[in-house]
Amino acid sequence: LDRKYVVQAASGGTYSARNPAAVRAAAGNGQGSTVPVPAGAATFGAAVAVAAPVEVPPPASRSLWDMGLQLFQKYLEINAELLRKVVDGMVELIRRERDGDAVNRSLLKSLGRMFIETGIYFSVLEPRILESAAQYYKAEGERLIAEYSVPEYLAHAEERSVEETTRVVLYLDAASRRALVTAAEQNLIASHVEALLEKGFDALCDGEKLEDLARMYTLFERVNVLTPTPAHNLMRQTFVAYVKRVGTELVMDPEKDAEMVKSLLDLKAKFDRILNQAFADDVEFTNGLKGTFEVFINLRQNKPAELIAKFVDNILRTGNKSFSEDELDDILDKVMMLFRFFQGKDIFEAFYKKDLAKRLLFDKSASLDLEKSMISKIKAECGAGFTNKLEGMFKDVDLSHDIMISFQQNASYMAQLKDRELNVYVLTHSFWPQSTQSKIILPKELSECQEVFKTFYLEKHQGRQLSWQYTEGQCIVHGKFAKGKKVLTLSLFQTIILLLFNESDKLGFNEIKEATGIEDTDLSRTLPSLACGKYRVLTKDPKGPKVEPSDSFVFNNAFEAKPISIKINSIQFKETADESAQTTNKVFQQREWHIDAAIVRIMKTRKQMTHPQLIAELYSQLKFPHKPADLKKRIGSLIEREFLERDPDNPQLYSYLA
Prior knowledge:
Layout: E1 5-8, E2 14-17, H1 64-78, H2 80-98, H3 105-117, H4 121-147, H5 150-171, H6 177-188, H7 193-206, H8 210-222, H9 231-251, H10 260-277, H11 283-297, H12 303-318, H13 325-339, H14 345-361, H15 368-382, H16 384-408, H17 411-416, H18 444-460, E3 474-481, E4 484-491, H19 492-500, E5 506-508, H20 509-516, H21 520-531, E6 538-541, E7 552-555, E8 565-567, H22 577-606, E9 608-610, H23 611-621, H24 628-640, E10 644-646, E11 653-656
Parallel strand pairs: 4-8
Antiparallel strand pairs: 1-2, 3-4, 5-7, 6-7, 9-11, 10-11
Helix pairs in contact: 2-4, 3-4, 4-6, 5-6, 5-8, 7-8, 7-9, 9-10, 9-11, 12-13, 12-14, 13-15, 14-16, 14-22, 15-16, 22-23, 22-24
């Protein structure tokens, strides 16, 4: 082709001429000149200006590399068999590498680059690699799930995931990473979630294998969207079922009562570690744990609450020399975590109050700071109304100390005591647990002291009445034996019995009962502590651990023991099964009163309600565990006492009677 010239017309139009001779160069000052236009050419205006010649470049050129790639791609498309062999060969090399064989990674890298550069990587190579990976890991998962333990299998699956990521980095396209790793996780993890949980989850929790549990949690999180039911949901359900099974076995076994609270604390601490270190404090797992604890800890109603109260008593009464006060306070914090779970808080209150009374009256508290700290924790959890009486008990003790100081400073009353010492706690009746007892017969030495204090107190507080509680009384008695004197710390009942032997050397069971007025139950418990225990200040005839009404007792003048001061009143600190049952029954009775009061309160407001409506309202108001049968029974009782009446035409409708 000839060179092409562009001519600028004066009017702004253009035309081209292929013949150089048709155009003459401009001369002079560079302005456009008039030139003749060949015949037949188009004209624009009166004259044509000629610009400098401009060469038009040919179409865009490409590099030899690009043209070579294009030709190579066409060649591969034409030679489908060759392309198939290349793809098969590369897939086979990857399979061998997964099997652990050494392969030429440089070759794989070059092949991968070839597919990427030719633009057929995603259409030709990637589908085959993903298909091969899925088949490989499906077969491997089915084989290893039976051969490996769960920790081994999880570690292997995690390692495979890392290997596939590395494979992509070395010789595949980065965009394939997610799909390739998913192929491995789908077939190694997602397809075997239920089998892994069933085979090894409980064992991992039993052994507290935190690393393995964390690995399972992480792997299941990756395959959450790959399973019909999210893997984490299945794992949480399995965790909840495990917690419930272990907790139920612990709570429902009476043989484990002695260690139940400690075991529950250890179990809660264990699960907290698993949540924190293995499950990343997952909210759903945490809520599942809380809900499950609340379920199994209340399966055995009332008993866990009683045992927790006794556990706290043991800490506050004796303390623990191997722990500091701060560490004991931390243990109490953990106990309060259990306290939140159980429903029978009124049972806890009853036993806690009874034990607190003994700690305060016998001065057995390890630390008053710990005592007050525990009251504060209960108050924060249950409100001021729950701890009002407990706080009142501390105030009574402080006030009693002030009263006794005033009494001891009064010389006339102290003179009436002669050589005896007296300490009295004046307690508010409604704050303290009350014992059921018959009127006992005090010996003259004690009744005189009682009358002296009574006169002193009523002189200062006219109009008040004093009701004496003897079961928690304590005496220090000087005993004279053939081999020396001893200072005996005794309960009031023990003291009354021993003082009888100042007048007689031998007494029968019934004679002691008649002389003291002590009931059979208390007498059968007190006499063995004097005649059958470690320190036998009395001897029993016939010998034996049990006391019968036909037994007789003799003062043991030959009694000897190394210590001068001896405590024989330990029975006051030990609660018998009967006493425990009595405390529980009192709570049940109080619950009936609360139910009655709630029914009357509701009906007084509503006037008329159907049975289902009343039951539903009671469930929303009552805070302690109860059954529909219990509520129905109390409704019947109120109908009998004419607080309510049934509608004659509708037995399900109740009306309030003013």
